[in-house]
Amino acid sequence: MKKEGKPVISLSQLEKIAKAYNGSPNGGPALDFSNTQIAFAGKDNDELKRTEWLFKLMNNRHLVSIGSKLGMLGTKIPLPFFESAVKATIFKQFCGGTTLLESQPAIEHLHELNVDSVLDYGAEAKESEDDFNRTMNENLRAIDFGSTLPSVPVISSKITGLARFELLEKVSKTDATLTTEERGEFKNVLKRVDAICHHAAQQGMSVFIDAEETWIQPAIDLLANRMMKRYNKEKVVVFNTFQMYRTDRLAYIAESFDLAKTHGYLLGAKLVRGAYMEKERKRATEMGYPSPIQPNKDATDHDYNLGIQFCIENHESIAVCNASHNADSNLKMAALISQKNLPKNHPHLQFCQLYGMSDNITFNLAKAGYNVAKYMVYGQVKEVIPYLIRRTQENTSMTGDLSRELTLVMKEVKRRGI
Ligand SMILES: Cc1cc2nc3c(=O)[nH]c(=O)nc-3n(C[C@H](O)[C@H](O)[C@H](O)COP(=O)(O)OP(=O)(O)OC[C@H]3O[C@@H](n4cnc5c(N)ncnc54)[C@H](O)[C@@H]3O)c2cc1C
After folding, report:
1. Segments forming the whole domain that contains residue 318
2. Does any ligand 1 atom lie closer than 6 A to the CB of residue 210?
3. 375: Cβ below 6 Å to ligand 1?
4. Do 284 and 290 contact (CB within 8 A), yes or no?
5. Does ligand 1 come within 6 angstroms of the Cβ of 352?
6. Residue with the nearest Cα to atom 27 of ligand 1?
7. Domain-embedded: residue 24
8. pLDDT category of residue 384 using cuts at 50, 70 and 90
9. Measured between alpha carbons, how far is residue 350 from residues 72, 117, 329, 369, 395 in Å?
10. Does residue 275 have its Cβ closer than 6 Å to ligand 1?
11. 0.85 exceeded by the pTM?
12. Each residue of 208-251: pLDDT tens digit?
């Protein structure tokens, strides 16, 4: 049995789906996510063999389990050689660099293959006002940096990098009253988020506001809605993120759209399935409230695809980013664009995957002429360890099967005969 949350589509299923969608939406080259020649065209033989070696290591769950524990230890105490080993292996696969400048070659390489980059400062949840200001300044620097490059239209921002988790939790509770001090603290959060969105608007960039846990999401939604109201009048500067593994989010997309229409702004909607499923379910069980998560994967997929469809139907007033590694959802969006006869590079229609993952989807979409980008995570090795651990766990086999990524890399190695 597959572990929950893991991709469930096989290579042969990919081939079947590609045939079912009949290849060539909007007259461009056929979309076939099993085409590994296009997927790995950006890698020479040595790079491809290194990638194969790395995904083989990640496929081993014992190794990943030991590596994850060492990784968490490495964030607390200095472990000799650990940082350099991580940097030469998984960091290189999933991150652009330790700084913006160090990430530039990776960004330019993607640009040569018609793929944009979304700058994502990888440092996770912070605690102090100094830390929050540092994250804000890092986001502002990313906007400046991105505005000088032709293939960086957007940065992503996590509100937990800019605000105290407990404060967001309190703001999210409908029955809680903030103390005077907390009200001042939240005003500072608003100022930080506004500084980022304002700067993005001035520099011609956009901001994706990431979605997080349900018990802090109302505060994040509040901030995102305020920013969209302020900055999305002429074009979409700010995007909120909708996690479709939640039972209430399909209705919330429609509600957000109504709000946007009422106040005369455009809706920015980044759709994801959601990254905190186990944590959400565990908390709901422990605290005795109904789980906010869909009962099964099919229900998540159903709402995800309907959400994409809703946004495309309303693409004149909604800019959508389909942020997913799910082949079926990507093909469905391409097919809808085709059915509606919309330009593949319409500025309101975007696809996005994480750097180092699902290259078969990214580069095949790019080759066919769609707007597609990679989340380009950057930051000091220590800062991005939790992100790297999540990526390695996604590529681990619980069953002894080969992971989807490894299967694709091996197919290309075989095709090249190396
Ligand atoms: C560019 C990008 C940006 C992202 N930004 C965010 C973000 O801001 N916030 C965030 O939370 N996540 C974010 N994610 C992660 C995302 O939410 C998913 O966890 C991840 O992409 C896997 O989902 P998928 O659509 O790629 O594909 P799939 O592999 O098809 O789906 C796996 C996902 O399906 C859902 N799922 C799995 N099993 C079940 C089940 N039994 N019942 C119900 N649902 C189930 C879970 O959400 C799981 O992660 C982002 C991902 C990408 C690619």
Report:
1. 99-323
2. yes
3. yes
4. yes
5. yes
6. 326
7. no
8. very high
9. 34, 12, 13, 11, 25
10. yes
11. yes
12. 999 999 999 999 999 999 999 999 999 999 999 999 999 999 99
